[in-house]
């Protein structure tokens, strides 16, 4: 089992380097790579020579949905196996190989036509193809919404392999869907991600700022794999030396897994390795825990906000039943200093809650009366919920649900 020992150096960009090598726009990247295997092998060998501990297989969009856009939806298993094989050849046993999974871009109900479980199915197929191909772990990268990131993580965890998840943020430090970095990473770490963080985005400065203070709130390593900008004529791309100089700043923040995304080359990774070798990594890893007095402090979350909670000060709303008026009930408690106490009795309740949970601007605690229904409610909640210990569910089952979804039993 691959261990994420910090400091750890990942590789650099794939896509922008393939374009420089002659890959035309609009093609299926995965098929083009398979048709030009020497290109990816040469690039990834250069990353290994630059000092990368891990190289990422070029399986970014090798999922059923993305491949189907090129009429290749039935090639998931075949393409992932062949692409991982190329990366293994390039690594030559000198670096680990991560299988890469990326967003589909599909919108999940109530904002789109895809179901959450449908999204999980797409990722599950690719995740097991990557496992069969022999990757050391699965890297879910460049996610723009917590919904897709959670779906990918849940699917990939089923393989038993370690899974990392990184999001990408805009210049305002939030994801494209408006997600808060801390709340999203807390949720993903609690769900069992081996490491979490940011990749791509708009350069090392934005990534450093967005991740400032985050490591101390998480029990897992933090990843920074920023963009250097796409090469342009206005010299806006971050230079090799400038990019590498951020290693020291990331290490000071407790961010110990570094790499590069769009615009970076083996030269960037060589320079980054040199700076990492000179800098001191300060481990600031923290996470939820119990105080010596027995009072627990923890972080609950929805996609847009993290909630710092002390259990002794936690108040609940009146019980909210999942009827036709659940939207009104959730909106009524907006701004109140309490957690929304939602009752989940059956599958219909779970679905109604899932379709309206985005309206909750306060932390959510679920009071369950059926284990399967509670599982569904947690699955559809895009955040880190709390579970009421008074739920009419066996303790062992409640604990399993807590572990599966990162929920906090209170």
Strand order of the largest sheet: 1-8-7-6-5-4-3-2
How much of the sequence lies in strands comes to: 15-25%
What best-fitting shape do the alpha-carbon axes yield?
globular
Instruction: Give the N-to-C terminal Cα separation.
Output: 33 Å
Instruction: Give the name of the CATH superfamily of the largest domain.
Output: Homocysteine-binding-like domain
Count of separate structural domains: 2
- Kindly state the percentage of residues in helix: 25-40%
Radius of gyration, whole Å: 22 Å
Instruction: Name the average pLDDT.
Output: 95
Q: From the 3D structure, determine the CATH topology of the largest domain.
A: TIM Barrel
- CATH class type of the largest domain: Alpha Beta
Name the poorly predicted regions: none
Biggest β-sheet strands, sense, barrel = 8 strands, parallel
- What's the β-strand tally? 17
The helix tally amounts to 15
CATH architecture heading of the largest domain: Alpha-Beta Barrel
Tell me the structural class. alpha/beta
InterPro entries: HCY_dom, HCY_dom_sf
Domain Hcy-binding: 1-276
Protein name: Hcy-binding domain-containing protein
Cofactor: Zn(2+)
